[in-house]
Write a structure and sequence with these properties.
Alpha-Beta Plaits; Helix Hairpins; alpha/beta; Rossmann fold; four-stranded antiparallel β-sheet; elongated; 15 helices
């Protein structure tokens, strides 16, 4: 219906142009005026702004009356069509689309969620609670409506298309979540994103072990199997209910006080080569180091104060938001702190 209205508006504009052309020709022949004078007389007549002088001759007068009637009809129709377009949201929708696109273009270090079904929406909830920027990429009408209702940044498209990934800001993104219900789509999304951004952090969803293996080969940093994860959590809730409940609360972005965070040791932070004791992290920040992921991928689940930090290590810390911010400052690039 919206496209039909736009087509009628184009037709009305065409009719107006034809009326001006015919009026110009008619005045030139009936009054013997120059082409510019005839066009001027046609313009002021059709646009209902009046005429400088009364045309001489019956033919010219009838032509003037006819053009005035045509002008009234055309502008009345154009006005009603514009009102209809605005009422149906065509123009306002276009403006909103431009604003949304510009907002996405300004994003930096954001995350892209490909697939906005049940899994994708829960991912978005966690991102929203954590206060990080993200863009939803989906083509489903229900998914896009859900994104609008939640005021999410979204792109209508398919994550398997390179152009749509670029529109979501792939070149500027920090990470990508391939959360489609289709394993093949997640595979294509992972391949496309990894090819464009070799350093991008990618987490993908898989329905079974075979799909998980293929996604890992395609370049996914982490692969999640929702059914396996749900089964593990349900079993642990039976076997170790309090431990599981505690970890569930602590690993949720909306956790009230105590939270977990990961901090990467870089050359720029100036802390590489020092031990946990030497940095006195507990006293300096209040945060507790509960695990240490070494740069070779192994985990030290009970790091001692004498554990030495090296570039590429990742600290797994627990603490309040303020304590974790202090820890981030301790391992922030020295130049950033000086600035």
């Amino acid at each position: 219906m919206q496209q039909f209205s736009v087509r009628l508006l184009v037709i009305a504009t065409t009719v107006l142009t034809v009326a001006l052309a015919l009026g110009t020709i008619g005045f030139q022949h009936t009054l013997g005026e120059g082409w510019m004078d005839s066009f001027y007389r046609s313009m002021v007549t059709v646009t209902l702004t009046g005429i400088d002088t009364k045309p001489s001759g019956t033919a010219a007068e009838l032509l003037t009356i006819g053009l005035m009637l045509v002008g009234v009809a055309i502008f009345a129709y154009i006005a009603s069509t514009l009102v209809e377009l605005i009422a149906r949201g065509v123009l306002t929708g276009a403006w909103a689309e431009r604003r949304r696109r510009r907002a996405i273009e300004r994003l930096r270090d954001h995350y892209i969620i490909c697939g906005y079904g049940r899994v994708g929406r829960n991912v978005a909830d966690e991102f929203r609670h954590a206060g990080v920027a993200y863009v939803v990429l989906d083509f489903s009408a229900s998914a896009l409506e859900a994104a609008r209702e939640r005021n999410d940044h979204f792109i209508e498209g398919n994550g398997t298309e390179d152009e749509d990934l670029r529109a979501a800001g792939l070149e500027r993104a920090r990470g990508l979540v391939a959360a489609s219900d289709d394993d093949a789509d997640n595979l294509y999304i992972t391949l496309s994103a990894r090819t464009t951004r070799p350093e991008l952090h990618i987490v993908a969803r898989a329905s079974d072990e075979d799909a998980a293996r293929k996604l890992s080969l395609a370049g996914a940093d982490r692969v999640v199997q929702p059914y396996v994860a749900a089964g593990r959590v349900m079993a642990n809730l039976i076997l170790k209910p309090q431990v599981t409940a505690f970890l569930d609360v602590m690993t949720t972005a909306s956790a009230p006080e105590l939270r977990f965070e990961e901090i990467k040791v870089t050359d720029a932070c100036g802390q590489s080569g020092k031990s946990i004791r030497e940095l006195d992290i507990r006293k300096a920040t209040g945060a507790l180091i509960v695990a240490l992921r070494k740069h070779d991928g192994t985990f030290d689940t009970t790091p001692t104060p004498d554990a030495t930090l090296t570039t590429g290590d990742v600290l797994i810390a627990a603490g309040t938001p303020d304590e974790l911010r202090a820890l981030e400052d301790l391992f922030a690039p020295r130049g950033a702190l000086a600035g």
